[in-house]
């Protein structure tokens, strides 16, 4: 059985009057700065998009009132509701409190003491290593909200001495939302 060339002639040849074989158009590779198209869905572990017209399935119920306005620990303010793990509370008239249960210690690190002893033998400038200080903050900031006779409290880890001021800024914003 022989293969016939649709353009005439032998394999890979074309005769006079027959057009050359159609070749797929070649597109140049994207230039510098253009994004490279990503891999097809399913690699690596990408879910396929839902068919057009079907809504995406979410893990839980949609929040009431739109996008979150504020989030402090596990307390979230959305619209006119305060969402907590214990249930929803009304935002209007809510009372917000924060208590700083953290403390900051300042001490000379061990390596500074060792360097001061080593360099004291060679020169008196080694005592300058004792001026090195290390601050370490431990503890939590407790945030409580009370509304409509219900109460919820959360503990936020304090990462530094300035962190309580940041949480208080969020609490003051929540208080302004509650008074509207």
Automatic annotation (TrEMBL):
Disordered: annotated segments: 1-61
Residue spans crossing the bilayer: 112-132
Keywords: Membrane, Transmembrane, Transmembrane helix
Bias-annotated ranges (Pro residues): 17-38
Name of the protein in question: Uncharacterized protein
Record organism: Streptomyces longisporus
